[in-house]
Design brief:
heterodimer, A: mainly alpha, two-stranded antiparallel sheet, 75% helix, globular, B: 265 residues, alpha/beta, Rossmann fold, 2 domains, 4-stranded antiparallel sheet, binds adenosine-5'-diphosphate, binds magnesium ion
């Protein structure tokens, strides 16, 4: 039986050790990077939350094209709350997530009348309407130029400890804490019965409905939770960069999220995270070194096509394959060695 | 066996469903006694599945009403009806194909395993989830499928998939179960086992309404049979009466598929 007590315990400890190792790497990482790479690392951490929250929605089988706009709703909301109403930034961040979630709750009434392709198009239209509102209304959204001089995270200064969040390293750690906590919540949701229900709706919504699952409510729930965390990602972005505008949350950004998710693979929790990390590293280190970073859309397109053709289940599906290769390679020489001996 | 109650637990009055110009269900009325095994038969295309779809809330009726335990439920949402105790199964193998057999039944326990969002997050739903898992396993065992709990559905043979479909529905603890062609594609041995299971389900206090083409099974199993043709009521009665009714024989002889059904029987 795979579920014996000691086996479970060993696997749990192995898993925890891996997590400790991961956090150790993440803790020393910024000190190995240049200043501009540190800035990229901050955005990467924020994008991890963006793409992971997107995956929660895809569990129900619906793919939205409005997720980046929803991130923008969180960004605008948190920025305006801080700028106009003087709400302190950590609080505005949470409220921004809440407003993004509320926006999703309202949008779910028209959007979840549709499924599949129609939902995709509907979510795109809804997103464009929101962007039009930002562009059209200079008050309070700042029009096409957007919002500038958004309040930064307040410095922490308690005598012996002073942290200036203008420093990318410090903001990196702040984002890391917020994003880790968010990922933990997203993971718990997926592992609970709620996650099972999302999957059930994805695979067979008629059967799910017939045993009492209100599929509309659960689709809305997935959309609202995903949007809350997208809004948090937006707030983290706004208070780091200090400026937001409608273009920043355009459809080209949405395409990047789709590429991260698809190239990484959406079947597992870590797939999309793998996707955004690998593609960002390729983009920022390899392409920049080659002076090709302006060709990003072209190269992303090529990577997407290649991965759909040759790696339909995403980068995540490589891990078991690699493990299998290593296992075979290890047992192979050992077996022949025995034979020779 | 419990004495059948006279009060109808499920009733349709003047039920009509149109698809454009086609009248799939046409001013159809019937009533199902509590504790009965009630057959709904008719040639292919008679409107049986559509009737189930309207009763179970997948389609709104074009006209007429459905009453469940005395309440007008016409046009209510499928999930609401399931919560009230009216659960249907599907023609064919409609299951969560990517899940294990046990996970299918766990989803079926949805209504019985309620918990707050926060307790799901914090994991304090563990005791109610453990209870749900135990009940899901017991439901699998009821169908003799407990050995296959961890098997992915796509690995199960057709007969087991049909049983699992019923297990998912039964896990929702219905008062009335609508079974759409439960014996289709089963061999005689599987059909016999399935018939015994349907009787046991009824003996647990669940009223059963079933659509089936296997005439021998229907005649053996059902307390009462409603025959529909072209969307409308043709005859209703106990099996002996329905079997010998000239209108029924006529309807079945008049349709090509009835020959197949009779051959199979
Ligand atoms: N969704 C639908 N749209 C159009 N016509 C339908 C639909 N569902 C069923 N029908 C038609 O209604 C009639 C009855 O079908 P159905 O209820 O499936 O019959 P049965 O289950 O008795 O074989 C058929 O002529 C069928 O083509
Ligand atoms: Mg049918």
């Amino acid at each position: 039986m795979p579920g014996t007590g000691t086996g479970k315990l060993v696997r749990r400890i192995a898993w925890q050790l891996r997590l400790v190792f991961l956090f150790a790497v993440l803790a020393v990482l910024p000190y190995l990077l240049s200043y501009s790479q540190q800035e990229i690392a901050v955005l990467l951490v924020i994008n991890v939350l963006l793409v992971s929250s997107y995956r929660l929605l895809t569990l129900t089988g619906e793919w939205s094209l409005g997720h980046v706009v929803i991130m923008g709703v969180g960004a605008y909301a948190s920025a305006l709350l801080a700028k106009r109403l003087g709400v302190s930034v950590p609080v505005s961040l949470l409220l921004g997530g809440g407003i993004a979630a509320a926006t999703a709750a309202v949008l779910s009434f028209p959007l979840f009348r549709m499924k599949g392709f129609y939902f995709l198009i509907g979510s795109f239209a809804a997103g464009e309407i929101i962007r039009l509102i930002w562009k059209r209304f200079t008050e309070p959204f700042g029009g096409p130029k957007g919002l500038k001089r958004i309040d930064a995270f307040p410095d922490i200064d308690i005598g012996f400890l002073s942290i200036d969040f203008f420093e990318p390293v410090n903001y990196y750690f702040l984002a890391l804490v917020v994003v880790s906590a968010s990922l933990f919540v997203l993971y718990r949701i997926e592992r609970s019965r709620i996650g099972l229900t999302f999957h059930a709706i994805h695979w067979q919504d008629r059967l799910a409905e017939s045993v009492g699952i209100d599929t509309f409510r659960y689709r809305t729930l997935a959309f609202v939770i995903a949007s809350f965390f997208a809004g948090i990602a937006g707030g983290l972005y706004a208070h780091y960069v200090g400026a937001v505008n409608p273009t920043r949350f355009g459809v080209d950004q949405m395409v990047y999220v789709l590429v991260w998710a698809i190239v990484g693979g959406t079947a597992t929790f870590h797939g999309p995270i793998l996707g955004v990390v690998v593609l960002t590293v390729i983009n920022e280190i390899v392409l920049r070194a080659l002076g090709l970073d302006t060709a990003r859309p072209l190269i992303y397109g090529a990577i997407l096509i290649l991965s759909v053709l040759y790696l339909p289940n995403g980068l995540e599906s490589l891990a078991p394959r690699v493990r299998e290769r290593v296992r075979r390679w290890r047992s192979g020489p050992a077996a022949t060695g025995e034979g020779a001996g | 066996m419990n004495a059948p109650d006279e009060r109808p637990i499920l009733e349709a009055r003047g039920l009509t469903r149109r698809f454009g110009g086609l009248v799939a269900v046409d001013n159809f009325s019937f009533s199902v006694r509590e504790g009965a095994i009630h057959g709904l038969i008719g040639p292919n295309g008679a409107g049986k599945t559509t009737t189930f779809n309207v009763i179970s809330g997948f389609y709104a009726p074009t006209a007429g009403q459905v009453f469940f335990r005395g309440l007008d439920i016409s046009g209510r949402k499928t999930s609401t009806l399931a919560a009230m105790g009216l659960v249907r199964t599907f023609q064919g193998s409609t299951l969560f194909q990517e899940f294990s057999a046990l996970d299918n039944v766990r989803v079926g326990r949805h209504l019985g395993a309620r918990a707050r969002f926060l307790s799901r997050l914090l994991g304090t739903d563990r005791s109610s989830e453990r209870e749900a898992d135990a009940k899901a396993l017991a439901t699998l065992a009821f169908f003799g499928l407990e050995e296959l709990a961890d098997e992915p559905v796509s690995n199960l043979p057709h007969g087991h998939q049909r049983m699992l479909g019923m297990a998912v529905a039964l896990a929702a603890e219905p008062r009335v179960m609508l079974l759409d062609e439960p014996f289709t594609g089963m061999n005689p041995e599987e059909t016999r086992r399935m018939m015994a299971l349907v009787r046991r389900i009824r003996d647990r206090g669940v009223t059963v309404m079933l659509v089936e083409h296997d005439m021998q099974a229907v005649m053996n199993l059902c307390d009462i049979i409603t025959v529909m043709n072209f969307g409308a009521l043709l005859v209703e009665g106990v099996p002996e009466v329905v079997r010998n009714d000239p209108a029924v024989i006529e309807a079945y002889l008049g349709s090509a598929t009835a020959n197949g059904a009779n051959d199979a029987a």
